[in-house]
Amino acid sequence: MDYKIALLPGDGIGPEIVAQAVKVLKAAGNKFGHHFEFSEGLVGAAAIDARGNAFPDETLRLCMDADAVLFGAIGDPRFDNDPKAKVRPEQGLLAMRRELGLYANIRPVTTFRSLIHKSPLRPDLVEGADFVVVRELTGGIYFGEPRGRSEDLEKAYDTSVYTRAEIRRIADLGFEYAARRDKRLTVVDKANVLATSRLWRETIQEMEPDHPEIAVDYMFVDNAAMQIIQWPKKFDVLVTENMFGDILSDEASVITGSLGLLPSASVGIHTSVFEPIHGSYPQAAGKDIANPLATVLSAAMLLEISLKLTEEAAAVRAVVARSMEEGIVTEDIATGKAYKTSEVGEWLAANL
Ligand code: IPM
Ligand code: MG
C-alpha cells in the first residue's frame, strides 16, 4: 500500500531524530511491501524564522493531506526567557492541535528493565509499571476564553472551559484503552474546587453503566501526583483534563527512567500526530548524540494507530528492543560504547 506521511521535524534535535525514524520507516516499507511518501513541513521556531508564523497554512495543508504526521520537537531557548515575545514556537503546537482537532494525547508509560537504574525512584517501586495517560488536548484552560490582560496590565486571566461533549469524547477513549488493557480507569480531577472538574465527574459517572467491565475510580489531581510517585504500578489508564494531563504526563514520563524512550500519539478529528515526549534538547542539537528511540517508537505508534499496520509496528518495537539488548544506543543510556544518533538509526534500519 501507499501512505503519505508528513514530517514536521521542528526545532533543536527534532530534525536529527526524525531522520532516524524515517530510515526505520523506509526499512519497514521495504520489508513489508509498502511505499511511504514523505513530505516535510515547517513548525515552531524554524517556522517563525522562515515564515514569521509557528504553524504556517502550508504546514496545516500538508498535515490535512497526509495519512499521519511524525513530529520532532518544538521550542527554542531564544524565546523561553522572553515573556514579551509576540510569536512563540509553542503557539505552533497549540495551533496544530486546534486546527487538526487533536483532542486526545496518549502517552503510554512503560518501564524498560535495562533503564530502571536511571529512575529517580527505587527499582522495586517502578519495575513493571505500565500505564497510559489519556490527556484532553484541545480544551480547558489552554484554550478557554476570555483570556488576557486588563488594560492597566495589573491583572491577567485565563479561563477553563469544558463542555459535556468534550468530556464524553475523551472519556470514551479512556474507556476504550481501559477495555483493551487491565480494565481500570482513573479519572483525575479537582472536583472539590473546580466547576469544570465537577462536570467531568458527573459526565463520566453517567457513562459508567455503559461500561460495566471497567472499574472506574476518581482521584483529585494533587493526590494523583503523589500516588504516581508512591505506587506507580497501581495505575492502568488515567484520563484527565488538558492542564492536569500536561503536568502528570511529565511526572509519569520521568519515573521509569526512560524519558528518551517514550512515544506519544495525539489523535482526534483529522490527521493524527506522533511525537516523542521529550523536548527539543537544544544543547544537543546538531551533535548527533540525541536518543532517537522515542521517535522511532512514535513511528511504531503511527504504523499501528493511523495506518493499522500492527505487524509492522511490532517489528519496529522488536528491533528497538534488540538495539537496547545489544547496546547499540546513544550516550544517554549506554553502559559501554555510545553510538551516534545516525548510527543507531542505521543499525535499526539494517536489522529490522
Ligand atoms: C506538552 C508541552 C506543551 C503543552 C507546551 C510545549 C505548549 O508541554 O506537549 O506537554 O503544554 O501542552
Ligand atoms: Mg508538557
Estimated structural class: alpha/beta
Q: Report the top-level CATH class of the largest domain.
A: Alpha Beta
Domains, number: 2
What's the helix-strand series? EHEHHEHHEHEEEHEHEHEHEEHHH
Bound molecules: 3-isopropylmalic acid, magnesium ion
Shape: globular
Q: How widely separated are the two ends?
A: 19 Å
What CATH architecture of the largest domain would you give? 3-Layer(aba) Sandwich
CATH H-level homologous superfamily name of the largest domain = Isopropylmalate Dehydrogenase
Spatial strand sequence of the major β-sheet: 2-1-3-12-11-4-5-10-8-9
How many whole angstroms does the radius of gyration measure?
20 Å
Helix content: 40-55%
Rounded average pLDDT? 96
Distinct helical segment count:
13
What percentage of the residues does DSSP assign to strands (E)? Answer: 15-25%
Largest sheet entry: 10 strands, mixed
Q: What is the CATH topology descriptor of the largest domain?
A: Isopropylmalate Dehydrogenase
Task: Provide the fold topology.
Blueprint: E1 2-10, H1 14-32, E2 35-40, H2 45-51, H3 57-65, E3 68-73, H4 77-80, H5 89-100, E4 104-110, H6 123-126, E5 130-136, E6 148-149, E7 156-157, H7 164-180, E8 184-189, H8 195-207, E9 215-220, H9 221-230, E10 237-240, H10 242-255, E11 263-267, E12 273-276, H11 293-305, H12 310-325, H13 341-351
Parallel strand pairs: 1-2, 1-3, 3-12, 5-10, 8-9, 8-10
Antiparallel strand pairs: 4-5, 4-11, 6-7, 11-12
Helix pairs in contact: 1-11, 1-13, 7-8, 9-10, 11-12, 12-13
Bound molecules: 3-isopropylmalic acid and magnesium ion.
